[in-house]
Amino acid sequence: xxxxxxxxxxxxxxNVDISKQNERWCSLWDAGDFLPWDRGRANLGLxxxxxxxxxxxxxxxxxxxxxEPGMKKTALVPGCGRGYDVFLLARFGxxxxxxxxxxxxxxxxxxxxxxxxxxxxxxxxxxxxxxxAPEFSKGYDLIYDYTFLSALPPALRPAWALRMSQLLHxxxxxxxxxxxxxKDPASGGPPWALPPNxxxxxxxxxxxxxxxxxxxTLDMEALEPELPGGxxxxxxxxxxxxxxxxWGTDWVSVWKRRST
Length: 260
Prior knowledge:
7-stranded mixed beta sheet, two-stranded antiparallel sheet
């Protein structure tokens, strides 16, 4: 199916109120015949970081704030889908948790682990729930976002950045694979256009409503000052390998809480 047709079908399916978005994601997983985001493998950008940039990510064990020295560090993948990235993080030594609103998606995660035991070693678990729900409040050493922010209506971006700041430990790391970075912001979504400046602006100002122009781009000249508790980008690169069809367009960014 052509990418333009995929975008058209997704736009039509999610042309509903924000309060009904979760139901629409669940219905796609329940039907199982239109899952264009499911590439059948872990993201190669994340794999590149884990393999080549331990200087940025650190070791997956040690003085994790969630346990004693030497224990596995914890990682969260919101909107985990079939769990490929959860299993990848677990293989690299993290205690990885996948979160998704779809119970059907999480059933598929368990099925995948049963069918591919060699790929699904390590410590992992899955939770059904809403990323924005207050009862979901455990802290993590690492959070990984790929196609999660792009699935959210732009009105939820301030809340997304705030939740990241609430769920990530003080010395934790946030990894974002920035997709789709070259899509026209006026074309709607999901996936919603996410050029790098959207991540930079919102993560530097968690919870703050930011000004957007009529064409869907950020009004950079009208931004408020960055917040003391916001994030700063410590790495920004285009990995040597990205998923099929997006070679050379996705960016990978790594974020840490700004020093005060």
